[in-house]
Amino acid sequence: MKRHHFSAYSKLLAIVFGISLALPYPSHGQMRIFDDFTDGDHADNSPLSWNLENWPGSSNVEISIKDSGLNISGQGGFPVFPTLDGRALITEDVSIRIQAQMTPEVYLAIYTRVSPPPNNAVYFGGVDQQGRIVSQEWDHAAQTVRYDMAIPSFALYDSDAFIQFDAIGDSLKVWVWPVDEEQPALPQLDTTDNSLTEGPNGIAFLSNSEVRDVSIRSFEMNVIRQNNPGDINGDGLVDVTDLNQVISDANTSDVYWLRSDTNGDFRVNTQDVHAWVKEITQTSIGDANLDGKFDSNDFVQVFTAGQYEDNIVANSTWDTGDWNGDQEFDTADFVAAFQDGGYESEANRVQSVPEPSINLLAIAFIMFVPARKIFGKKPV
Description:
Strand content: 25-35%
Low-confidence stretches: 1-7, 9-29, 350-359, 370-380
Distance between the termini: 33 Å
Helix content: 10-25%
């Protein structure tokens, strides 16, 4: 899958918000972030942070975190998005809810699935400057691609309101309702749109006149998992392609691809590789062919691939010897396998016998490393 860089998203958001736009919570959410901004910059019980920097074209907009919540004031457009360790969180299916002080002449919406150039597109769900509930797709080339509207049945500006935007598959649903009432059973807007599939999320603010202190009281995001936990690419299979996707995502330095967050901590790193192998497929580190056991067949496979210490940067995958998730096949992968202790373990075949010693794996290593010179030899 094509990788998108955070810098590309940053440029896109600056473009999107530097112009004027045309005028019960789901129980299936399996990963949840909540922030009521009472602890300053970081989300409650998580290390989530919010960008508080200004953007080109939005120099008259100020954003700060106060006792009343995340406050936005000024004139222009501004994207506010959560980050973790300075990285944007990339999701596919997501349900987001905010509680906000609604203000006339302000476009306030949740955005999701921001795509990088050349599409430069994004979904919005919220309230526009005219006080209408909206579901919108915006594209840099075509500007407004789709703009669905509904008139709220309550006095929008009398009190705080909840805005909820669900983007699950090709279904886009928007609810807006007063905080002192129950969430409507049906969304005010229910749209089918399959143009965008993944991207970062956040809150969009736009005002063509000077506005003071629009407050976001809380932000809640539920990441929806539709597939088998190990089926990262959604093809209905749990195989090495999925594991290699986790490894690839774990080595991205600018974003967290939450599709590969197999341990549910909102980060994607080598711990997720370990969780996919040990918890989801319940096999051993070193099981290159994923047949449920780590044995000599796995050594034959990885040395036949010929990537052991080949000095080619980041070219290895699980099935070619990268067992610690750093995209290299070297001695560190044998260390990871030795420490796991699964080589020819009968525990992987249901029955239990004494675990093999490090020496047995060392012998296997000595036997198969010379094979690199044969298997990995390139034609002259």
